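Query form — protein Ferredoxin oxidoreductase

QUESTION: What is the three-dimensional structure of this chain?
INPUT:
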Amino acid sequence: MKTIEEISEKIAKKEAIILTAAELKSMVRDGKEVTVDDVDVVTTGTFGVMSGTMAVMMVPVAEKCSFERADAIWLNGVPAQPGPCPNERLGVVDLVINGTAHADDRYGGGHLFRDLVKGKNVDVLVEAHGRHYENKVTLDEIEFARIITTRLAFKNYHALINPTSHTISTIFSVTGLTGPFKETTVSGCGEINPLQNDPSHRSIGVGTRVLLNGAPGYIMGKGTRASPDKPNVSAYADMKDMDPTMMGGMKTAHGPECLTSLAVPIPVLDEEILSGLKVLDENVPLPVSDVNGRTAHAKVNYGHIWGGTDKVIRVEKEKCLHHPDCAAMRTCPTGAISNDCIINRDLCINCGTCTFQCSEEVFHARLGSITLAEGTLPVSLRQSDRARAERLCTVLKNRILEQKFVPTKMLEPL
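ANSWER: The structure tokens for Ferredoxin oxidoreductase are given below.
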């Protein structure tokens, strides 16, 4: 048995063995015997649509005494809630803005958060006592800006299906979920998800240090809608330390959603912890639910989603017919596709939407499928990006090795 203090000493001496979750799983699949002596820390991570994301900020608007207090405020057209502090006559506004709030059907809070972190100018509009005040700000000019999540990193989420003959507009589809039993959309990073690798919650608890959108932050506790079967966590971090490639927004059939990421180091203290870390996709349950009311329909596993499939979308530009109204470009939920079939990999979340929109198969990937009593349903949308989550695990591994991030002991359990 090891202690976190002993592991921290090994990190300081550059003697620690740090593995990403993907590296450890590869060793397990290859049949290698991995013991507590073979690894000190395993880095886990997830990236995808996480609706329970908000930002708390204090935004400069005008000179002191310009207005008494704000009645309403918008950033790049995205509505925010003034408060909780009124900042009476100070010319600044405290606000809370939801990642799922939106200016229109393509731009929402998640897009706004990413633009701020990228250093872009943001338009601020305040309504106070019937008058309007405008300003342009960057994140550097915002004294206080934190991302807070009410829930993220569900241990396992859903595969959603539509058993009806009507196409359903939902946040779990880009173009509408068709039925009956014609397709499925999925969320979750399976075997590399932090909570999936800590089933006993011995590492992840209140005060655990993490990377939230690439920034050092902390777990605050369990999140909303958490349950013993489907736990999740709430966390926070400073926006000014975040990585814009590890966050963002995406368009869905029911409005913009927020993309959020979380990486958590799991110190390997004993065999029980190591045993939890050896879980593989094929042993991670994936509930299949009716999108109407989320009622349970069946259960498969994440091996159907991530086993033997392509984590990254491939492009064969020579097949492109250069249609003036490119369906793949028009429907891409993150706006990652531009002219000449160029994919902006910083924006692309490998969701697979383009593979169903392009009749010439310029964009293609094996996305997997699930088999139910009603037949085999192809995966038409992945709302989690396993490739990016694995990259985040590598980022955290390197920060630990470079002594830029030190794993911490939780203050209390979830």
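ADDITIONAL NOTE: The helical segments are 4-12, 21-29, 109-117, 271-277, 303-306, 327-331, 353-357, 386-401.
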